[in-house]
Amino acid sequence: MSQKPEDFFKHVISHSKEYGYIFQSSEIYDGLSAVYDYGQLGVELKKNIRDYWWKAMVQLHENIVGLDAAIFMHPTTWKASGHVDAFNDPLIDNKDSKKRYRADVLIEEHIAKIEDKITKEVEKAAKRFENFDAAVFLSTNARVKEYQDKIDAINARFKTALNDNNLEDVKQIIIDLEIVCPISGSRNWTDVRQFNLMFSTSMGSVSEDANTIYLRPETAQGIFVNYLNVQKTGRMKIPFGIAQTGKAFRNEIVARQFIFRMREFEQMEMQFFVKPGTEMEWYEYWKKARLNWHLSLDLGADKYRFHDHLKLAHYANAACDIEHNFPFGFKELEGIHSRTDFDLKQHEQFSGKKLQYFDPELNQNYVPYVVETSVGLDRLFLSILSSALKEETLEGGDTRTVLNLPPALAPYKAAVFPLVKKDGLPELAESIVKDLKFDFNIAYDEKDTVGKRYRRQDAYGTPFCITVDHQSLEDKTVTVRHRDTMIQERIAIDKLSTFLEERVSLKSLLKTL
Ligand code: GAP
Fold this sequence. Notes:
Blueprint: H1 5-18, E1 22-24, E2 36-38, H2 42-59, E3 64-66, H3 76-81, H4 83-86, E4 88-93, E5 100-102, H5 103-128, H6 134-140, H7 142-163, H8 167-176, E6 193-196, E7 200-203, E8 211-214, H9 220-225, H10 227-233, E9 240-249, E10 264-274, H11 279-295, E11 304-308, E12 318-326, E13 329-340, H12 342-351, E14 357-359, E15 364-366, E16 369-376, H13 377-388, E17 389-393, E18 399-403, E19 414-418, H14 425-436, E20 442-444, H15 450-460, E21 464-468, H16 470-475, E22 477-482, E23 488-492, H17 496-504, H18 506-510
Parallel strand pairs: 3-9, 19-20, 19-21
Antiparallel strand pairs: 1-2, 4-5, 4-6, 7-8, 9-10, 10-16, 11-12, 12-13, 13-16, 14-15, 17-18, 21-22, 22-23
The structure holds glycyl-adenosine-5'-phosphate.
């Protein structure tokens, strides 16, 4: 698509609203910032993504089981996990615009601008030289080297400042890099302060008795506190995993970019419990497995890359992100973290209960180490929707908007149309829907011309349109039109179910893993 990235992103947002994928929360009251609702098509796509993750993680792994822990947890959980003391963002305000920013984001965006300059140098050189070798160019070009040295120096200083919690130096980096507020254009910054991201509320009817509790900022802690329950009752042997999907809440300050960063969102997390000392092996295993899962969606291998964390979270000894190329650039989609035995040990200490595993092979008890995979369902939704949305110019100059969603994830698997609203065609079309609807989510549409109906389903992302015409009455065949190629073929009505099963079931996608 030749649109500018920011225009394309606006197109993604307006398409989401126009076709019932995503609405602003409480829109009739002018909305609630960074909170969104999923409409009639959005809820189906979201559910299909969740189901695909669940089947791939739980059903395809004998040693991974599921869990659905409550959102409310005992408040000590968050003391033990470190979230009360360390789940902070470093914030800075611009005194002129009164806008608040995450200091780390300002610095990362500055680095991204320098990286853009390197990309431009490479593109310029590629245009100039025949047989251009990017690797040789990158290692020899003086200007590129200068940019790279700058990036390395900023990264090193920034990492030290964050690790030492040296907020004065974080501010100084922003000043030294001459970063300006995008709204006021000024460098009139406040000091950097830490801000805790957890939402709190109270539980109990009488205010004096009420306890402050938190809305969970990650689903992972529900898994840790149930680790022994699941291990014992499920007779799980290490290595094993516990997976869960569910809502998480964070009082994000820089909440923008649509459903990329929300205050209420859904996570899909899996904690994999391993023998201490084997965690790096499993960390590498899950990095590969999770990247493969994303690649199986066939949205383009060049849309994903790994990014190692500069600053490790308080619980990790190794961590990386799988980044996705969103309409606003490469950003974190999923986190893979080697969390050591931090969480279980903390819960042992705060609860006074042992959370150990007896290893029959070693004849020894230990607290397992944990490798975590954690992906935001809403972010995943955005990555899929924005990669799938295309504006195509057809032969003859006509255009169409199409959502090339992976068929197994599409809200409707097929739409059935009677060619005309008479001659018994609607009745035959409805009987086809009746047969298919037990296995597939099927749309029925008899309004407007067939051409308009095709366009509507293209915009929904429906992979197949089935048209019932007069020939169907005679030979019990229908026309099936493929969304992506627009090719039409004639198929016997009694073969439709198998035809769809092979192309749109989650099974067809799972088999590619
Ligand atoms: N249990 C580990 C954990 O929560 P994280 O990197 O903070 O790690 C994991 O979050 C994933 O959750 C992210 O990769 C992202 O996909 C998603 N996520 C985090 N904050 C989010 C937000 N405010 N809005 C939407 N998704 C978010």
